[in-house]
Structure formats: structure tokens, C-alpha cells
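Please check this one:

***
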Amino acid sequence: CKALSALTEIAPDGEWEAFNEQLSDLTDQNIKKYGSDPIVKIFKKYKALSLINSGIILKMQGKIDEALLSFKNSLKIQEEIGNKEGIAYAQGAVGVIYQDMGKNQEALSYHLKAAHTQKQVNDLRGLGYTLIYIGQVYNDEGNISKALEYYSESLEINEKIDNKQGIAFATNDLGVVYMLQNQLNDALEAYLKSYK
């Protein structure tokens, strides 16, 4: 399972999807084979990962409802086995789908849960991205002050852990908000920082 999981992460598009299918099949076989043995927890963790990957594939294919179901099934397994990192990741994935569907309140609920869980396990990298998503929901709802608050908190965390991609995303979103508010100097400063 570990090797197939690694291959889903490093293989190029068009190849990793097949490794994910193999991972899903292998986990199903071993969950059935080992039943109530404690080792099943490991296979369930990989099954939950394969469901996240399947959700990503379905989302790319435009099958949003099916992607949502896949992410929720992953979340259910992660909760069952008590994997907090996996819970947070699945909560965030569900939140993103709800954002894509324009269901901002549902999205916000899942993103806030993910942020809470990420704080519990000290997942600063994940938290930095989740705060961006929360800011985007607030921005979409027209709550600019809350959007700025979450983008700024994300930027602070991403700078603390030196996550260049997270810094770029947070500063870019700050720039968008500043542009909408006609704060052109602040927008330019944010955009320039996002390109560094």
C-alpha cells in the first residue's frame, strides 16, 4: 500500500490514477481478508487516501456530486480510525467541493472544522491553506474584513514555516481584496510579494 500511495503522489497525470485504482483494490481486498484484525486500521487509512484521490479524479472530470461523496466517504473512514490529520484533509476537501458548488455556508462549516483539527495536530502547512479557503468564502460573501483577517493569518503562518506557495496564494488573495477596495498601492505591494 505504501508504495502505491507514493506512486499516486509522484507519477505524472495519466499514470497516477491507475496506481490509485490499484491502491483502492488492494485496500478493499485486505480489509475483507483481515476483518477485525488491528492491521485493518492501516488498510483503512490507505483506503481513505484512495477515496480522496478518487474524489480529485472525479472533480477533474466534472463529476462534482460523485467527488463530494468520495470525499465524505474518506472523511467517514478517517473519523472511524481516529486519524486527525486525515480528518482535517478530508474536511478541507469537502469544503472545497461545497465552495465549487456555491454552497458557501457548508463550505465554511467544513473549512472551520478542518482549521480546528489542524490546530489540534499542529499542521501549520495545512492550516495555512485552509485559512485561505476560509478567506475566500468570506470574500465571496462580501465580508471583506473577515476575508482580510483570514488571508493575513494565513500569510503569517506561511511566512513562519517558509511555505513559498502558501505565501504566494495568501498575498495574491490579499491583492485581489485590496484591488476591489481600490487600495491600489496595497494591491500592488501584495501582488509583487506574491511573485517573489
